[in-house]
């Protein structure tokens, strides 16, 4: 499977030699450094590019599939037409990497009493595991300390109803996952051989969303602990409809789970616009985004393509527009543009590039990350990485805030950057691996909305005027950083909360 898909990917891109564009050898003499090219950022260009990338043709650009590779090839062709130089591997715009996938095989089986459960529909196994056992099912209500004190769980599969209310500052889906993790650990330590949760009304909505996620299994870079095959007792989640029959006495649980693990190719798309200063052009301002989304999944209201217009075709179209501006008027420092593959698989492209950059890691002076920038109120946005403990460069943040005042003048939401925010937004995009390395990094975003990770995230829902202003904000920040003499200072003592 791995070899076949990889060969297909290379054949797909074989028509694109993607070496230095012809136009690169005929650059204009740079204008004075104070003259930027903001006028090169046009709403019509952004809208055209976003409709092309987030249309059904690329089928949602799922990481590790031909759809992601096709979208990456399309992006590279746009970049070559703009005139930027390739900055990937071997003189191309591409940096290849593998993502590892571990999942349950189709031969896996699960039954409780007379109920033969279809995995990923009738039951979710929270983590892939190779594990086989037949054991009595013990129902313990909601699993309180008082209920558990009355029973012996050793050698039994324990079933319990999910219950509880998250703290005010917690997201319910994070709370659900944490409760299952903690309670499973407690029961397994006491001798249980499997733990079976039954969703309540609140957990049922998450159950329905999680099904296609767990069917895909777990992803990581080769060697990541999360993707290594294990043989541990499973934690299982049943839908709310199982509440009545799971309580029947005398039932047996039969578990026969098997896993498989294999590699897929993914790709980062990398381009650069050289700077004009003899010394500063050896340094880079990195403009970051990701090209992948969720692909084709179970239909919602008849639509099975998760187009990812806001997440993250907005960032992709924005970077193309910023490239046009830097191509029209280069800055003193060089501009580096990276489209990270497989972000939705766990920031895999940015993890790989930050650890294996195609330019010296020390030459990257700042990372400006574009993530979901075209929805919600027209006058509001957020700069993630501007609030401690996420603040790793006051200097960079001041530059970004000044660019906002000079340009779009957004009202900035700072709540989503706080460590107490339930969505933990800081940890969910491609600036994070760079920040962990100490590189000054911020994220530009217009935050979540009800269409997030659904087939409703389509090009027609985007506020293109707002997206253009967000793009301008990033550009003005990058232009300022690229032309100042000193690189943005790093925050002393920077340390993330997790």
TrEMBL record:
Presence of the UniProt keyword Signal in the record: yes
Q: In the UniProt record, does the keyword GTP-binding occur?
A: no
SUPFAM superfamilies registered for this protein in UniProt: PA domain, Zn-dependent exopeptidases
User: Per UniProt, which keywords does this protein have?
Assistant: Signal
Domain Peptidase M28, residue spans: 268-472
Q: Where is the signal peptide?
A: 1-26
Q: By its UniProt entry, which Gene3D superfamilies does this protein fall under?
A: 3.50.30.30, Zn peptidases
Q: Tell me where the transmembrane regions lie.
A: none
Protein name, UniProt field: M28 family peptidase
Give the lineage: Bacteria, Pseudomonadati, Bacteroidota, Cytophagia, Cytophagales
């Amino acid at each position: 499977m791995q070899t076949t898909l990889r060969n297909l990917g290379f054949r797909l891109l074989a028509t694109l030699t993607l070496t230095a564009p012809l136009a690169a050898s005929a650059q204009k003499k740079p204008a004075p450094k104070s003259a930027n090219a903001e006028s090169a950022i046009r709403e019509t260009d952004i809208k055209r590019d976003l409709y092309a990338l987030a249309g059904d043709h690329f089928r949602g650009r799922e990481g590790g599939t031909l759809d992601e590779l096709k979208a990456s090839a399309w992006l590279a062709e746009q970049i070559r037409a703009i005139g930027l130089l390739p900055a990937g591997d071997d003189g191309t715009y591409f940096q290849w990497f593998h993502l590892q996938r571990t999942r349950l095989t189709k031969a896996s089986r699960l039954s409780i009493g007379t109920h033969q459960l279809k995995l990923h529909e009738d039951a979710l196994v929270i983590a892939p595991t190779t594990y086989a056992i037949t054991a009595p099912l013990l129902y313990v209500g909601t699993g309180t300390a008082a209920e558990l004190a009355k029973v012996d769980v050793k050698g039994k599969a324990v079933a319990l109803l999910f219950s509880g209310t998250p703290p005010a500052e917690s997201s319910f889906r994070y709370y659900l996952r944490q409760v299952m993790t903690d309670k499973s650990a407690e029961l397994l330590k006491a001798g249980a051989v499997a733990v079976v949760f039954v969703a309540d009304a609140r957990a049922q909505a998450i159950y329905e969303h999680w099904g296609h996620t767990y069917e895909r299994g777990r992803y990581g870079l080769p060697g990541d602990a999360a993707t290594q095959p294990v043989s541990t007792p499973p934690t299982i989640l049943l839908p709310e409809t199982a509440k009545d029959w799971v309580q029947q006495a005398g039932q047996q649980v039969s578990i026969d789970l098997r896993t498989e693990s294999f590699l897929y190719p993914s790709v980062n798309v990398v381009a650069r616009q050289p700077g004009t200063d003899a010394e500063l052009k050896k340094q880079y301002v990195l403009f970051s985004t990701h090209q992948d989304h969720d692909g084709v999944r179970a239909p919602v209201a008849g639509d099975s393509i998760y187009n990812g217009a806001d997440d993250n075709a907005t960032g992709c179209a924005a970077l193309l527009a910023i490239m046009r501006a830097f191509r029209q008027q280069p800055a003193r420092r060089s501009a580096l543009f990276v489209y990270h593959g497989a972000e939705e698989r766990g920031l895999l492209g940015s993890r790989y590039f930050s650890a294996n950059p195609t330019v010296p890691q020390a030459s990257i002076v700042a990372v400006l990350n574009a993530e979901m920038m075209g929805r919600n109120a027209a006058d509001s946005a957020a700069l993630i990485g501007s609030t401690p403990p996420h603040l790793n460069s006051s200097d960079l943040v001041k530059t970004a805030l000044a660019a906002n005042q000079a340009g779009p003048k957004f009202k900035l939401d700072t709540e989503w950057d706080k460590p107490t925010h339930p969505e933990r937004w800081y940890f969910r995009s491609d600036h994070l691996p760079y920040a962990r390395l100490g590189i000054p990094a911020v994220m530009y975003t217009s935050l979540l909305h009800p269409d997030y990770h659904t087939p409703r995230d389509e090009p027609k829902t985007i506020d293109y005027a707002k997206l253009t202003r967000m793009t301008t904000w990033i550009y003005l920040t990058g232009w300022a950083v690229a032309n100042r003499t000193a690189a943005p200072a790093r925050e002393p003592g920077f340390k993330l909360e997790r």
